[in-house]
Write a structure and sequence with these properties.
F1F0-ATPsyn_F_prd, mitochondrion, mainly alpha, transmembrane helix, 4 helices, ion transport, about 110 residues
Length: about 110
């Protein structure tokens, strides 16, 4: 699959209009329904290529867009989610500088 192409599993005659938030591959058991002894086999069936990872990130992005950003009546949730996400990101990248400013108590 090249950049901008449909997934190879997508068939317009079967699936209808393309939805970027949907996985068109063979369905598997959801992670929440696994038993402990099935986790190793489930992880072994995952596709671990960079294109599969980017596809999963793209589907997650479009699910978030369809749920929070693109409905007719958008609330404040996507703005607060972006705010908290950016605050967390900048805290993580600046943690090395901030950890030297801790207040220690000596007794």
């Amino acid at each position: 699959m090249a950049f901008g192409d449909y997934p190879k599993e997508y068939n317009p005659a079967v699936h209808g209009p393309y939805d970027p938030a949907r996985y068109y591959g063979k369905p598997d058991t959801p992670f929440g329904q696994l038993k402990l002894n099935e986790i190793g086999a489930w992880l072994g069936r995952r596709n671990k290529t960079p294109s599969a990872f980017m596809g999963a990130c793209s589907r997650a992005w479009w699910r978030w867009q369809h749920k929070y950003v693109q409905p007719k009546k958008v609330g404040m949730a996507p703005f607060f989610q972006l705010l908290v996400g950016s605050m967390t990101f900048f805290y993580v990248i600046n943690y090395g500088k901030m950890k030297h400013h801790r207040n220690y108590k000596y007794h």
